Amino acid sequence: MHRAELATFLRARRAALRPADVGLPDGVGQRRTPGLRREEVAELAGLSLTWYTWLEQGRPIAASAQVVDALARALRLDADQHRHLRVLAGLPVPPARTAPDEVEPRVQRLVDATAPNPSVMFDRYFDFIAWNAPYVRIRHDPAVLPEGRRNLLWMMFTDRENRARMPFWEAAARAVLSQFRAAVGQRPDDARFVELVRALTEASREFGQWWNTYPIRDFRPATISIDHPATGRIALDVYQLRPVEYPDLLLVMQVPTTPDDLRRALSLVDH
To answer: Which pTM value belongs to this model?
Structure first.
């Protein structure tokens, strides 16, 4: 817990509120300082005045998630401020939820701008959100996947064309599965994850076998190879990046490794 910074933040947010903001009488002329009084914040959050005072003084006391969330409501914190309060209190911060319709066409423009490198954007479920023309021509077209199955795991484990083009498919599939396993482990009751795991287990023998071993491995720098029928083998360095404004989205960019790889990739993109 960052006690001193937490205390400073609480005092600043308390000073920024007027009594009228929280449904209290203004009390004009009766307040020596602007903002709410400590006892008012404590009452709004359902806390004792002594405990809240200690928190503002930076004393070594622990604050539970329930208490911190109650303070966020009492101080009328927005989503960014609420997350910051949780960080200062040493509590886990749930990832921001981003709906697809909130990111289009901004994310699509970002993905398109990475050409001639094949690039794609995934959401938290590894569902395809956006992809560019080089990705379609060099890797795979997500649009041909079944409705509700435009998903990286589904492509890796069930699409025969994609698998045939990857000479080192198993290593790549295991790496993707390990990242997916970690994501599911953080939200095991999420209905979308539950449905995806069930469907993938039924559709792929390898997925079911490897899933039960509980593989966990964060992303590491990697190079994949693609045997394209029109140009031969293309080596691609894989990069993963997260947009700051959309932290639950993941941009995966695949950069040709050598000048020869770039030449072969460009011959497909410019075609």
So the answer is: 0.74
